# Entry
Amino acid sequence: MIALLASLLFADGFAAFTAAVAVAQAEAPAAEVRADARHGTVVVPIHGPLSEEMVALTIRSIRRAHEKEARAILFEIDTEGGDVELMDRLIDEIERADDLHTVAYVTQKAASAGSAIAISCKSLYMRPGANMGSALVLMIPQFFGLPVGAIETLRKDNSAYFSKIIGNYRSHWRAKAQANGRPAALAEAFVYATSAVYQVEVEGVVQYANEVDLKQIADAKGEGAVRTLKTVCKEGEVLNMTATECYEARMCDGLATTRADLLAQLGLDPAEVEEIQPSWSERLAGFVQAWGIAFLIAGLVAVFLEIKLPGFGLPGVLGILFLGLWMFGKYLAGLAEVTEVLLVVLGFGLIAVEIFVLPGTLIAGVAGAAAVIGGLVMATQQTLLPQPDRPYSEMAWWSTTNSIALGIAGAAVAMVVVANYLPRIPFLNRAVLRAGNGASLADGSPPMARPHDELQPDWQPARGARGRALTVLRPAGKVIVDGHELDAVSDGGFIDAGGAIEVVKAEPGRLVVRGCGPAA
# Structure
């Protein structure tokens, strides 16, 4: 008993001692602990036009840098820019990683949106011979990734857009530069110089200022305190600067000929560099971005064919594949969440209820179509509704919504073409139920003589003509009318195999019938 008490007292004392040590360590300066713990550098390539793949790669790289408590995350930039919405998302991810030392290294060019990404990092280095700037915002209507309208350059003559969008993004670039101690007037001129930008000397200090800045300096210090040295960018121009010019203007922190040179300047160990490469899922996200509308149209048309044809077959499999691939790509890109996926699934479920359970009611079908369209639109947007306080994001919201609308309209046109011409196209018409070779009726009675359908490709039964159902119509199935075995849909409710039917409507590729008697 004594030994047991002694052991318990020892255990309690040891636990108290370790707890005290833990508290003392926790009360030590956090900066010292983190400085000792941090090691390694994560390198992220930003190469080529901005894409969903790049955004997904950046998100994963920042997560990896946090996991290994990296000393720095290095963005190697060689991009001509791209969609400003993608730029906004990339910058948002970089700025959220405010506990990491973010470094931009421009190896060739940081043009357009790439310049905003570069100046958003805490440190900015450039390779000699590289350049940065030329960030004039362009309006390029696209469909399938190709321009489909006039490219607008958003200068002062485009008055409807200029003050709202150019003004917003000049402030955007200016804020990024100011946050990291870089010349704001030069950053604004990357987008568009509403007034000339000058290199000036103020009380012996060289600065860069536009005409608004000069007036403020003159009011504060007197006109004699300002001496203009040279004009860097004229009014109405878009600024682009070489690496040497950026370094002389303090737009970048230094020049580095190689990555090893940069790491040495930053005091980082080259042996602890981890370069993140795009994964298969990120490449898939980029692929879906490029061909997303094609997948959407193909998926909707395939689902239409599956609904039109009885049973479940290849069109249904392809429809699920194409739409699933489209949604999965958006999910990988961080746009579609589980909510959007479930909304689309629910929509197709309601459409199935309309077709197979409650045909003709329209309520489930309309609700299902609305759910599918809503889910598709939401899966392409960062926000549920457009944001007026972010002009280009608002414009991108409407642009994306228009693309989805065009895709759905394109699918509708394709459905009409399929419904009218597919039954007449050799070989492809095998995908459509048509007059057969005399299969027996469900009740076992022999069918009428085989019709000469190949000689009468445009034959249609007359309205009011009667026949029998060869299969159950739920609501699609096969019927026989005047000896012709045909694909048909009921106008409401199920029709049992062998039941008498009457033709309600006949048009190329579509026959609507109604039941007019029980099965024999």
Observations:
- Residues 38-194+236-275 form a domain with the 2-enoyl-CoA Hydratase; Chain A, domain 1 fold (CATH 3.90.226.10).
- The chain has four domains: 1-35, 38-194+236-275, 280-336+379-424, 433-517.
